[in-house]
Amino acid sequence: MAGDQVDAVDMDGNFIVRAEVEKITTRRAYDRTLLVTLKVTKALAAQVAGFRVQDPRLSEPILDGSPSSVADDTVICRCERVTAAEIRQVIRQGARDLNQLKVLRCGMGACGGKTCEALIRGLFQNEGIDLREVVRFTQRPLVAEVGLGLLAGESPERP
């Protein structure tokens, strides 16, 4: 709601500043999308890419440090339905860059790797790989679908 305080974050989900929700609006053309405007200083505006809706600790993977702590049939990348066994195989073949896992389609789904990255990094740790050796997913900005007619200059109200 307007007036609420939220954590404004950058494209990687890193905290930037505590910000006030200035307003929440909708557009007829995007009836299932809310546009949330945050109040931040001009100096920080270009860095802010979104805001957190939950404490990030709630989505951290719970791993006990042993390679068997995650069963092989566990789905790690939910968007593309990639299992721990498939990811482990690529890691054991020498992958040290999460972008190499895109051969399995990890990080290419709707979330852009934002959901599975922490779990995949946990698998690297379980395989004895130092996370300093692992290159993170290339982060892509979130996008919204736009009809071709709108790009051609048609009014959003016209069919």
Question: How does this model look, in words?
Answer:
The structure is a single chain. By secondary structure, the chain is of the alpha+beta class. The chain has two domains: 5-55, no CATH class; 60-133, BFD-like [2Fe-2S]-binding domain (Arc Repressor Mutant, subunit A, Orthogonal Bundle), CATH 1.10.10. It is built from four helices and six strands, in the order βββαβββααα. The strands form two sheets. It has a four-stranded antiparallel beta sheet, with no helix packed on it. It has a two-stranded antiparallel ribbon with strand order 5-6. A hairpin with a 4-residue loop joins strand 5 and strand 6 (82-83). The chain is globular and about 50 Å long. The two termini are 32 Å apart.
Provide tags for this entry.
four-stranded antiparallel β-sheet, 17% helix, 4 helices, alpha+beta, two-stranded antiparallel sheet, single chain, 6 strands, 2 domains, Arc Repressor Mutant, subunit A, 159 residues
What's this model, at a glance?
The protein is α+β, with helices and mostly antiparallel strands and 159 residues long.
Helical residue percent?
10-25%
**CATH-assigned fold name of the largest domain:** Arc Repressor Mutant, subunit A
Strand pairing plus helix content: what structural class? alpha+beta
Instruction: Please give the largest β-sheet.
Output: 4 strands, antiparallel
Q: Number of helical segments?
A: 4
Q: Overall 3D geometry?
A: globular
**Average pLDDT across residues?**
84
Strand content: 15-25%
Count of spatially separate domains:
2
> Radius of gyration from the CA trace?
19 Å
Counted beta strands:
6
- State the low-pLDDT regions, or none: none
Order of helices and strands: EEEHEEEHHH
Query: Regarding CATH, which class of the largest domain?
Result: Mainly Alpha
First-residue to last-residue Cα separation? 32 Å
- CATH architecture heading of the largest domain: Orthogonal Bundle
Determine the CATH superfamily of the largest domain.
Answer: BFD-like [2Fe-2S]-binding domain
